Amino acid sequence: MPDTDFFSRVKDVVARIPAGKVTTYGAIAEFCGIRSSARTVGWVLNSLKGSNLPCHRVVNRTGALTGKFHFDDPFLMESLLRSEGIEFGQDERVILERHFWKPE
DNA sequence: AAGCTGACCTCGC
DNA sequence: GGCGAGGCCAGCT
User: Fold this and answer.
1) Among A21, A26, A27, A38, which is least packed by CB within 10 angstroms?
2) Are A43 and A19 contacting, i.e. CB atoms less than 8 angstroms apart?
3) Domain total in chain A
């Protein structure tokens, strides 16, 4: 069964995220042409659960790991990000100014 | 078919 | 930066 165009684009973007960098749902949504519906990106990631894509490198606009509870273990996401050299603030938020990556 | 839900974003206070 | 309200697309009941 073929993937939808939207599904394919999001998948491609997530696969492109380099280690030590993070992107936001909004950036992905904008790159896919659906800036108004970043929620759909979250839905795609839910489908991506089980794939080999680094969905842990996707955070929300404030840098909070909103999707960590959707992983097998809530600590896994933060652990992986820290392992890749990503720094966190005091409120468990990623420092987007240093690690933000936008698809080209 | 209609309505609710969701790993969100933007706007205003 | 935080809180509340509105809006978006797709999937599920």
Assistant:
1) A26
2) no
3) 1
